[in-house]
Amino acid sequence: MSRKTAALGITALTLITSAWTPAHAHDGRDLWATVTIVPGREGIVEAAGYTGPALGAGSRLTFTAPEGTEVTDTPLDAHGYRGAVDTDGDSATYTYTGATDDSAWQAQTFPFVIAVPADAVPGTRLTGCAMRLTDAHGTRKDHGTCAVTVGLPEPTLTRPESGVPLDARPEMAGTAYPGAQVTVPVAYTRLTMPTQRIV
Fold first, then answer.
1. Does the CA dihedral 162-118-17-192 come out positive or negative?
2. Is residue 186 part of a domain?
3. Three-class SS of residue 186?
4. Which of 141, 154, 178, 189 is the most buried (most CB within 10 A)?
5. Rounded Cα gap, residues 34 and 109, in angstroms
6. Which helix H or strand E contains 24, and what residues bound it?
7. For 138-172, how does the pLDDT look when each residue is reduced to its tens digit (9 = 90+)?
8. What Rg, from alpha-carbon coordinates, does the chain have?
9. Which tens digits make up the pLDDT trace of 173-198?
């Protein structure tokens, strides 16, 4: 039996409470976004929810990254929108370049890629994330907040090695964030790891 026959399951931390739903997220405002990203990784914040009047060319959506994170990309590939990231990575924008259209800011989501630092604490909701939509004259038409939560990293197993036959009581070793759980269905065993070392 090889390591491939053992499936890993992770019981994640409760990162977002039941009260944090899109209806509550923007506190009566239209723009909102929510995402969970593990430390040291990038994730996509997808802004959506505008329901206001049609806006024309020059209207702009500005995204301000949460404290401690960095915007790295504006990956939207759609005609009529131009994305740009600020030089310091603190913010990014999408500018509409098409004709006035009711669906210009309503028909799709607007993705912003952000990088979360490796030392971010799982379960933490990062502060400072904000969005603002303005018309071609810079007048604010909508604004909102976003919930960026630090997720739980996956455990890493170093033993048993893949392709090596296992005995009746194989030894497992590796690392995991405190509180993570590893489930091995073939052995009907669940290990709860209170420390960062699997013993």
1. positive
2. no
3. helix
4. 141
5. 12
6. helix 22-25
7. 999 999 999 999 998 877 777 777 667 777 667 77
8. 22
9. 777 777 677 666 554 444 444 444 44
